Amino acid sequence: MADKQLEEDDPFAIVGVRLPEVMDDEALTTMACCFVEELARLGFGRERLLTVFRNPFYTGPHTVYRLKGEAFVRALADQIPARAGERRRG
């Protein structure tokens, strides 16, 4: 842990946000892609990633799971590693 005290306007302070009550399909899909890509970059394998989406503790990913379904999340989990590899090569 850093010795520096957090300042009120510190950009690294943890800030919780609430999701809108209603999200359109495009916003939900974009959010899902961000979750999957971030977890993949953190080293989460496919099954561990799916476990996060299934767990109600993780409100954002679980919202995607409830609204879009497991097949949707599985399809994203299958696509992201290939897309991340394309970016690294390019």
Give an account of the 3D structure.
The chain is an all-alpha fold. The chain has one domain. It has four helices and no strands. Helix 1 packs across helix 4, helix 2 packs across helix 4 and helix 3 packs across helix 4. It is globular.
Structure, briefly:
The protein has 90 residues and is mainly alpha-helical.
Euclidean distance between termini CA atoms: 36 Å
**Strand tally, please?**
0
Low-confidence residue ranges? 86-90
Which structural class fits the helix and strand makeup?
A: mainly alpha
Range of helix content:
55-70%
Order of helices and strands: HHHH
Which percent range describes the beta-strand content?
under 5%
Global outline:
globular
Averaged pLDDT: 81
The number of helical elements comes to: 4
Rounded to the nearest angstrom, the radius of gyration is: 16 Å
Total number of domains: 1
How is the main sheet built? none
Attribute tags:
single chain; 90 residues; mainly alpha; 4 helices; 62% helix; 0% strand; globular; disordered C terminus
Blueprint (SSEs and pairs):
Layout: H1 25-41, H2 46-54, H3 59-68, H4 70-89
Helix pairs in contact: 1-4, 2-4, 3-4
